[in-house]
Specification:
A hairpin with a 5-residue loop joins strand 3 and strand 4. The chain is built from 4 helices and 8 strands, in the order E-E-H-H-E-E-E-H-E-H-E-E. Helix 1 crosses helix 2. By secondary structure, the chain is α+β, with helices and mostly antiparallel strands. 30% of the residues lie in helices and 36% in strands. The chain is globular. A 5-stranded antiparallel beta sheet has the order 1-2-3-4-5, sandwiched between helices. A 3-stranded antiparallel beta sheet has the order 6-8-7.
């Protein structure tokens, strides 16, 4: 199990098959997945998600990771980096999803800072993007708190989104 980032309160590590039950607290929760372009996951889709995470680690050196509380070892959610074509340009964007009982504790901001640090130091990236539906007020607050700037609006997978960027 490879740890990617450790922050003051969080341990962010690669996802394993043993994480399936914890991942369902995020990926199968309609409240958490409200602004997802892929929607609520079935058990089978969660196993596909895990397999895809492992493939991304091997392919790109990044992907989605599991977030745990360093002190209690409680599952907090997922965060990570994705690469997608957007308006004919490859962009690497950050995302995060926290279980409903872990929201509002500053973990999204803390994990975002951790992932951005990893992106800069380990991946040598110059910038990271965030793709957010404008109605997703919580995520907009997170990117605003972590230094992202609004770039433009666009369409991604049929959803109207706002694109933010932070220079590293």
């Amino acid at each position: 199990m490879l740890i990617i980032v450790e922050t003051e309160r969080l341990c962010i590590r690669q996802i394993t098959n043993e994480d399936a039950k914890n991942l369902s607290k995020v990926l199968a929760d309609p409240v958490v997945m409200q602004y997802s372009t892929v929607g609520v996951h079935t058990e089978e889709q969660i196993h596909d998600y895990i397999a895809n995470c492992k493939k991304q680690y091997d392919l790109n050196g990044y992907g989605h990771w599991a977030i745990f509380n360093s002190i209690t070892d409680e599952f907090v959610g997922v965060c990570g980096l994705n690469k997608h074509k957007l308006d004919s340009e490859d962009v690497i964007h950050i995302n995060y999803r926290l279980t409903t009982d872990q929201q509002g504790k500053g973990y999204a901001v803390e994990s975002t800072y951790g992932v951005l640090d990893f992106a800069k130091k380990s991946l040598n990236l110059n910038a990271v993007h965030a793709l957010i539906e404008s109605d997703n007020v919580s995520s907009v607050k997170v990117v605003n708190r972590t230094g992202f700037q609004f770039i433009k609006s666009s369409v991604f997978r049929g959803f109207e989104i706002d694109i933010y960027q932070v220079a590293l």
